[in-house]
Amino acid sequence: MKHTLLIVPGLGDSTTGHWQDNWLQHFPNATKVVQNNWNQPQLEDWLKNLDATINSIETPIVIVAHSLAVSLVMHWSQKNDTSKIAGALLVAPADVESPEHTPEEIWNFAPIPLDQLKYPSIVITSANDPYISAKRAEFLAQKWGSDFYNVGPKGHLNLASQLGLWEEGQQILENLLEKITKNQK
């Protein structure tokens, strides 16, 4: 079964050189959620754009969310029919509830929903992500029923991390796709 990889960037967008943008170019089945205001995100506006993008896709969707977009996906999943979602790769979640970890412009995404997801998911964090502690990321993964990967000290897994096509992330994505296939049998 063919899936659409739905790239969901966080604050500031995932522009040229970011692994999400590289995946968008690399995978022929990838598309991206585009937001109207990347730098002053408003949860309700971002939810509308995510919902419209999901509704425009015909095939089952594998979400690939980064940073603030992880909270966005959690809010969307709590309020909507998730039957089109085959799975989600939730990378470097930003702790929007922590003033010490995140900037004020994203606090309107708090609180982070803690409901268990109805689809397979994997949370990936870095040991030295400035926007969340590894312990908090693991706690969120447990609450959501997600598998958890700590990929070591690689920052926020963003452009500054210089991950290129992020082969390690692609391997974790493969693990998710295998899990999805097993669940469909």
Automatic annotation (TrEMBL):
Keyword presence, Hydrolase: yes
Stretch forming the signal peptide: none
Pfam families documented for this protein: Ser_hydrolase
EC number(s) stated in the UniProt entry for this protein: 3.-.-.-
Keyword terms: Hydrolase
InterPro entries reported in the protein's UniProt record: AB_hydrolase_fold, RBBP9/YdeN
Enzyme class: hydrolase
Domain of life from the UniProt record: Bacteria
Gene Ontology MF terms: hydrolase activity
Protein name: Alpha/beta hydrolase
Organism name: Flavobacterium plantiphilum
